[in-house]
What we know:
This protein is of the alpha/beta class. It has four domains: about 20-125, Rossmann fold (3-Layer(aba) Sandwich); about 130-165, no CATH class; about 175-290, Cobalt-precorrin-4 Transmethylase, domain 1 (3-Layer(aba) Sandwich); about 295-425, Tetrapyrrole methylase, C-terminal domain (Methyltransferase, Cobalt-precorrin-4 Transmethylase, Domain 2), CATH 3.30.950.10. Helix content is about 25%, strand content about 20%. It has helices spanning about 30-45, 55-65, 95-105, 140-160, 190-200, 210-215, 240-250, 270-280, 290-300, 330-335, 350-360, 390-395; strands at about 25-30, 45-50, 70, 85-90, 110, 125-130, 130-135, 175-180, 205, 225, 255-260, 285, 310-315, 340-345, 365-370, 380-385, 400-405, 425. Strand 9, helix 6 (about 210-215) and strand 10 (about 225) form a beta-alpha-beta unit. Helix 7 (about 240-250) crosses helix 8.
Amino acid sequence: xxxxxxxxxxxxxxxxxxxxxxxxxxxxxxxxxxxxxxxxxxxxxxxxxxxxxxxxxxxxxxxxxxxxxxxxxxxxxxxxxxxxxxxxxxxxxxxxxxxxxxxxxxxxxxxxxxxxxxxxxxxxxxxxxxxxxxxxxxxxxxxxxxxxxxxxxxxxxxxxxxxxxxxxxxxxxxxxxxxxxxxxxxxxxxxxxxxxxxxxxxxxxxxxxxxxxxxxxxxxxxxxxxxxxxxxxxxxxxxxxxxxxxxxxxxxxxxxxxxxxxxxxxxxxxxxxxxxxxxxxxxxxxxxxxxxxxxxxxxxxxxxxxxxxxxxxxxxxxxxxxxxxxxxxxxxxxxxxxxxxxxxxxxxxxxxxxxxxxxxxxxxxxxxxxxxxxxxxxxxxxxxxxxxxxxxxxxxxxxxxxxxxxxxxxxxxxxxxxxxxxxxxx
Length: 426
């Protein structure tokens, strides 16, 4: 699209929102620009017809389920009949001009992708957050519009731009709970939806594994409750956490339960949902990036690799093998050929290693143990199954830590593979 500012004598843009639900829209062209326009039109609920001899694979994928009607030929006079809106997005300026001319004669608003000055309508840079739509016109410069749009959306997400209506006083409003997975620790790795939920919360119940940087950015009126469970240290009982969520929600507050990783991966998320539902409190789950995959990935270790492993298993190591309350079949885990990822298994590592070796895992199997994954203090130790107890005994790692067993450890994409028999502190 032409980035040259349009002559102001041609008139300024009159911003208006088109309600296209169920209305016919014609897009002439089947390339990348057409694909992007179609995506936005479908989101608005329009009945989209694409006229083009060929289309992108992504557009073609929309045809079979009936989301898009494809007229597989070039543009012809009359193709805009009955259309409320048209987009001319071919690579041929003459075809685009013909589409725009028909639109002018039939009083159909038309956006020409190749010539803003010849368009009767300009497509803004659009962003959405639930029912809020942000549209920016850049005075003829699309990149300028995109930059401003992205800045506005980022501000709405992190709360630096106050959406006062969404943070209205809680008086008379029904409360709710959102379980948010905060990812492995780095605040930049929380999902957009999770970040938004935190920014709009009245109360945040967070543990020590949640992204702490997000808490510092919250307004002073947001109540932050520390629900940490320190290994072999101070912790808030799960029953107390459940009661707090229900209590604040029943008082009409928006409550976010902010956890590290994903709420449903050893996060007791289902227990909290059950407590809320039993009390009649609406509850939503926002999944997070589990540390079982993210922490090895950030250290350059894939949990799967083509031609090397077709399986991986995630295991809680908070109870050692043989413990009467342990639900893990360590003999079955040892017999697997793929990757084993152990969470909460620093102190129990020697016992787990003994069980894996006893049931068939070779002592020379590569192992990586990553502590403080995704954080500036992250440390990675590479060793073998046989060498892991010594690494733990030396105090080279501390909780929270994730350790990975398997040949994938040697596929470190961030540096040349090390000798798996030598423990290596990064």
